[in-house]
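Catalogue entry: protein
Contents: sequence, fold tokens
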Amino acid sequence: MIFSIDFFIRILNVSLFHPSFAILFLVVLYVQGYGISEPEFLFSSVYTFIVCFFWLLSYLSIKSRNGWKTRHLDWDDEIVVITGGSSGLGSLLAETLARNVTVIILDIKPPEVEHDNIIYFECDVSKLEDVQKVAKEIIDEAGHPTILINNAGIVQGKTILELSEKEILNTLNTNLLASFWTTKVFLPEMIKKNHGHIVTIASALTFIGMPQLADYCSSKAALIGFHETLRRELDNQYNAKNVHTTLVCPGKLKTGMFDGATVRFPFLTPSMATLEVVKPIITALDKNQGQDIFIPFYVNILALLRFLPLFVQDLLYKMNDGDHSMSKWKGKYNKNKDQ
């Protein structure tokens, strides 16, 4: 993603769009002799106010969501469960986290990597009875998990009429219901101790429908409702404000799941290496703060599209050739595989 719009946005975020830069620029103007009534100083003042205002909104949003007194996680006391952790994004998350904590992988196939801190349990997380059975084994062997990363997902790549009943149910059960099942078995202990973190891996396609992905888009869109409801229930119904929730909506990852899917302007809608998603997830866990992670930048735009008139949405969609993005798709069906 080096040669993409995100590269330049990252530079702007640490320069022109950073409060310290805006304030410093204002000070420099004043030192250079520009009076507070002069146009240059007034324009710079407005610019500084806007930058600081939006930075403050972001800061207050995080603090109000996570509390004013937060501290970094003590990794020595954590046990992580990752669904669909044997390959792709889940695999890299498991490998990275295993350097510091015990990581439990739930998948229907063994993990690609081996590590002393990684424990694998064969489990079809789309089935509640399988999750309940494995949960007892996990608790007996490693203890109660404190971090749950709901990452399992599959894609069929077929139109609505081409999809069989079994395929539709497989997608919904794996991509959506699995998050319910794992949360139901691991959340009660987190609530009891008022400590934990649940990460929900959704997708950029939660915000937009795409041909040949009706089941996938539907299941991922539903995860937003799941995540937001869970957060509010933890705060209000269960009074467990120290059990945090993070939503991750990544764009296309280079995991093979969407091999062959195309975009017209890769500079604006780039594919990402899994490491680019792993980093902000681990940062959110380490800071002990629930967050909404939308990456790359265009995912934020997708989230705002629904506020635009329908003809504008259609125009932007056609400009990027969204109707034919999956026409050359050759990714493989792989149950419990990540995005």
Notes: The longest helix spans residues 165-193.
